[in-house]
Amino acid sequence: METILTAKDLCKTFSQGKLQQHVLKNLNLEIEKGDFVVIMGSSGSGKSTLLYALSGMDKPTLGSVKCMGEEITGYGNDKLAVFRRNHCGFVFQQNYLNDTMSVLDNIMVSGLLADKNRKRIAERAKELLSKVDIGKEAWNKFPTQLSGGEQQRVAVVRGIINSPALLFADEPTGALNSRNTGHILDVLTELNKEGQTIVMVTHDMRCARRGNKVKYLSDGVITGELFLGDYESGDKKRHEELRLFLQEMGW
Fold first, then answer.
1. Cα–Cα distance, 196 to 29 (Å, whole number)
2. How far apart are CA 172 and CA 187, in angstroms?
3. Domains of the chain listed by start with CATH number
4. Residue 120: which H helix or E strand, with range?
């Protein structure tokens, strides 16, 4: 498999006066094309910090991140912004949709940053919205007129409108009920089956089961890895493997 993201000796330290908090500690990680990597760990273990460092949203204190053949660690803010726009998509716990814009326009704003052809972006946005079961009747609505689950599906489409090499998801179902969580997980699973590489931070076993690889983070270090293989609905063995792994990790 092709390795598309590599972190080497990654460190992140936050300083406040004389106090220093070492959040990531000489962390090493490789992600291959087509992976659905789930990052788990207790609160404060550094999960989101790692996600931001890998995606170029934050800079590590030490170490390097190589993504899509580019060493991005030394990039300035402008070059990082261009890199993220061209290669990365993001889905967060909060959907961050603009409530004064229609569903379609929320997506097109992101798409037009990379492709100025408005007609082409509109067609792709509509195709993707249909794919996640957001029908025509919702395209011109404002986000506040949709359910929480529908809003998050729109956020997923916004995250993939530019066909990113990597989709980063930070607790994407954390604000959703059980039913809507299932919808979002089905969307992410289907995207991964079609070849989308996904890196997801979660504290939820139901979400973690969808990944083909689970990496456990403790005090800024990856202390365990579990290889689950491709997801199949109703696989009880998969759930038990994950439960035993997390128990061993002290989760």
1. 19
2. 12
3. 3-96+165-249 (3.40.50.300)
4. helix 118-131
| Whether the predicted model's global pTM rises above the 0.70 cut | yes
pLDDT, tens digit, 9 for 90 and up, residues 106-137: 999 999 988 889 999 999 999 999 999 999 99
Nearest-angstrom CA–CA distance, 133 and 223: 38
Contact present, 91 and 168 (Cβ < 8 Å) = yes
Nearest to 135 by CA among 117, 153, 148, 121: 153
pLDDT tens digit string along 27-38?
Answer: 999 999 999 999
Tokens at residue 244, please? 């035993």
Strands of 3-16's sheet, edge to edge?
Answer: 19-32, 3-16, 62-67, 70-71
Q: What is the pLDDT of residues 192-233, one digit of tens each?
A: 999 999 999 999 999 999 999 999 999 999 999 999 999 998
Q: Return phi, psi of residue 60, to 5°.
A: -70, 160
CB count in 10 Å sphere of residue 245: 18
